[in-house]
Design a protein that fits this description.
781 residues, alpha+beta, five-stranded antiparallel β-sheet, 60% helix
Length: 781
């Protein structure tokens, strides 16, 4: 029994072991379908003698992707099946020319759609001109040939995506909208070919209705309606009533798509009722363009199409629209929530400032509290208290004001500083003066701390504004990132799907340049997969895309691609520390800050040494972190200023010399707070960027200097600390421009030349920290 089970062979396997079964199993089903389509399209003939350009265009679309001799054979057979006419030889010669050029220049033509289309129409024009010249070079023949060439070129674009979809459909996970429409156009031309065969018009109607009903059930009216227009137009060519045919098919397909939820029978019923009503309205004299028997037979065929197939096709065709709608809902929800949060924080900030203003009005103590406290301690038990503070109150207050002015000037008061009249009148002058000095010291301390507390409260109020600004910037940034391009995302997903790569969470954002992020199945350490993805993304966006980041786990790879920038930068720094100083107070950094931008910052701390280095390094590092995190330059400077002001050491402040270079546009955004001038050396002349604001950390509500310039390839940006500019840049002459004049070398060499020139004026001794940063801009080749 065991041996019998082991030797059992299934009937299918037994059939495959035979010669016919083995041959059948090795056949490429998609290639058979392509050959059938090619045969039918190449035999479309108008007016009995004019072969259409559809077959030539479809041949160019499929032959460039898979150069099979069977394609040439089927195309020639289709053309010759119409009859041995001059037009047959013209189109047959066109097929051979396209095949020869595609075979010779296969690499050059791959991935370029315009060239195959031009070759298709060009080959047709060359062969057609031979016929036109032979017939006498008539204008009608020439115009007809130009129309054929234009039709062939446009038909290529219509069939290109459908040809690829037919080839890759078994393994596809998503369809592009243009691919679905292209497939509908291909099916429409196939139906036209069937309709032009003798006595096959009824079968063509049945075939068209079957496809429309299938699209209505699977995709709804968004696809069935265009299909109705295409099939109506194609069948109208073979019909006695062309306009009515188009209208009836369009309305019937639209109606059947609307009742998608009612399944196959609902779609068929809606199509039948609408077609009957439209026929009675538009051409009642006819026996019916679409008869009930056509719809009944098409419905019967539709019932044999598996629901699984229809559901899968519909899911692939409408997936992008559903994802786009879900993205819109998420984007709207996030924007609404962010707006509510921003408005709440703005309200808190306004209330806090109002409370702060009222506290300033209520708690604004004057120096009178000094004398009130002194009188309570010294004068209250004195027998002359009522005389001094009641009967003689005006004179006493004038004496107090005089003594307060003296204390303000000398920080204390002695008995000799007391007005003579008050000294003669007061019997407790010495205790009064002693208590007055104590209360004045307490008043000064209280006033100092009250000022610091109010300043802290102002900083808190400022922080509320900063939080609001941060959230507003975050909202703008999220809006930019979430304001994606769903059509491009769908095209990228489709392009990857054609290459057998499954990707999700594709996000395309378009600012000055494209940025694309996605998740895909991990391919281990094989970087070929990332290279293939980059090629597909570049093909869809039609710009060079470079992989910026790749983070892979065992299962998923997160990829980020950025558009190749127009410019590249060469940044170098040269510096010298102040003589006998423990460290430099200048810090220069350069770093990418996203979206094709590079930032250069130069910060100069107060003085020199370790303390100045600490101040400038904090400033530069904060700017780097904030800009890299996506904060705009205004918020960045405001936050740095507040952080430095909140430092316990009140002498913590530093300059900010910031330049953000956009490598897509060449724009330069300058932000300066207490910094020295910057210089731009261009081929057309020299430019100076001036600054006049205070350093960061010195005052609240700091107002930086902003400027915007543009650079071209070969330009140099020079940023320097005051140790350099004080030596080389005088009101009469700027030696920095002299050094840069005619210079074409690297940024490092120019930075060293400027530093050495500055040191040459001080005999090689740096009397202040000297730092120069040079940014050279060139074209990205």
């Amino acid at each position: 029994m065991k041996n019998e089970l082991n030797t059992y062979t299934r009937p299918g396997a037994l059939f495959r072991n035979t010669g016919i079964g083995e041959v059948f199993s090795k056949l490429d089903k998609m290639e058979i379908i392509e050959n059938v389509f090619l045969l039918l399209l190449c035999r479309i003939c108008f007016m009995g003698y004019l072969v259409s350009p559809f077959g030539v265009a479809y041949f160019a679309a499929v032959f460039l992707k898979r150069r099979r001799p069977a394609y040439v054979l089927c195309a020639v057979i289709g053309i010759l099946s119409v009859g041995y006419t001059t037009f047959s030889f013209k189109y047959g010669g066109t097929i051979l020319i396209i095949a020869a050029i595609s075979a010779i220049f296969s690499k050059e033509l791959s991935g370029k759609k315009i060239f195959p289309a031009l070759i298709c129409s060009g080959a047709l024009f060359i062969n057609g001109m031979i016929y036109v010249i032979a017939e006498g070079f008539f204008a009608y023949d020439t115009l007809l040939l130009l129309a054929e060439c234009g039709g062939a070129c446009l038909s290529y674009f219509a069939f290109d995506k459908a040809a690829l979809l037919v080839r890759t459909s078994p393994r596809r996970r998503i369809f592009e909208s243009a691919e679905t429409i292209s497939l509908v156009i291909l099916c429409g031309t196939v139906v036209l070919s069937v309709a032009l065969i003798d006595n096959m018009l009824p079968f063509a109607h049945v075939l068209a209705i079957t496809v429309i009903l299938a699209l209505s059930v699977s995709c709804g009216f968004s696809v069935s309606c265009p299909a109705g227009v295409v099939f109506g137009l194609c069948l109208g060519i073979a019909s006695v009533y062309p306009p009515q045919t188009v209208c009836i098919y369009c309305l019937s397909a639209l109606a059947s798509g609307f009742v998608k939820r009612y399944g196959k029978f609902g779609a068929a019923a809606a199509f039948a009722v609408t077609s009957f009503a439209a026929t009675m309205l538009m051409c009642p004299e006819s026996n019916g363009i679409i008869t009930v028997s056509y719809v009944a037979l098409a419905t019967l065929i539709l019932l044999f199409i598996p629901d699984k197939f229809l559901n899968r096709f519909g899911a692939l065709a409408i997936k992008a629209k559903e994802e786009a709608a879900a993205g819109d809902r998420i984007r709207n929800a996030v924007e609404t929530k962010m707006t509510q949060t921003i408005n709440s924080i703005d309200s808190v900030s306004v209330v806090f400032r109002d409370v702060l203003d009222s506290l300033l009005e209520q708690n604004g103590e004057t120096h009178g509290v000094i004398f009130d406290n002194t009188a309570d301690t010294v004068c209250k038990k004195c027998t002359l208290c009522k005389f001094c503070w009641n009967k003689n109150r005006d004179d006493t207050l004038s004496y107090m004001n005089a003594m307060y002015k003296t204390m303000e000037r000398k920080n204390s008061i002695s008995k000799h500083d007391v007005p003579q009249e008050f000294s003669d009148m007061c019997i407790r002058c010495e205790p009064f003066v002693s208590e007055l000095n104590k209360n004045y010291e307490a008043y000064k301390i209280t006033r100092m701390w009250a000022g610091r507390v109010m300043e802290s409260k102002r900083l808190v109020a400022e922080q509320f504004n900063n939080i609001s600004m941060i959230l507003k910037n975050m909202k703008t940034s999220l809006a930019e990132q979430m304001n994606c391009e769903p059509e491009l995302e769908h095209k990228i997903a489709t392009a990857l799907d054609r290459r057998g790569i499954s990707a999700n969470k594709i996000n395309v954002s378009a600012g000055d340049g494209f940025t694309v992020t996605m998740d895909k199945v991990s391919c281990g350490r094989n970087l070929v997969c990332s290279t293939t993805v980059a090629a597909a993304v570049s093909e869809v966006l039609e710009v060079p895309m470079l992989r910026e980041n790749r983070e892979c786990s065992d299962d998923v790879c997160h990829l980020k691609f950025s558009q190749q920038t127009r410019f590249v930068t060469d940044i170098a720094v040269a510096s010298a520390t102040r003589d006998k100083s423990s460290g430099s107070g200048d810090v220069a950094l350069s770093f990418p800050c996203g979206n094709g931008k590079t930032a250069v910052i130069l910060s100069d701390g107060m003085g020199s040494g370790e303390k100045a280095h600490f101040q400038s390094s904090i400033t530069a590092q904060l700017a780097k972190n904030l800009l890299s995190a996506g904060f705009d330059k205004e918020t960045c400077v405001r936050l740095i200023n507040n952080i430095l002001m909140m430092n316990a050491d009140r002498d913590t402040f530093a300059t900010i010399d910031l330049c953000i270079v956009n490598l897509y546009t060449g724009s330069m955004e300058f932000v300066k707070t207490g910094a020295a001038n910057s210089y731009i050396k261009t081929a057309s002349g020299n430019e100076t960027v001036y600054a006049s604001s205070l350093p960061a950390g010195l005052v609240q509500g700091l107002e930086p200097d902003y400027d915007m310039r543009y650079m071209k390839s070969g330009d140099y940006l020079i940023m320097a600390s005051d140790g350099i500019t004080d030596v080389l840049d005088s009101p009469d002459h700027n030696e920095i421009f002299d050094i840069a004049e005619g210079f074409t070398g690297s940024a490092k060499v120019l930075a060293d030349n400027i530093l050495n020139a500055a040191l040459s004026y001080t005999d090689g001794i740096a009397y202040d920290d000297m730092t120069v940063a040079v940014c050279a801009v060139s074209e990205n080749m």
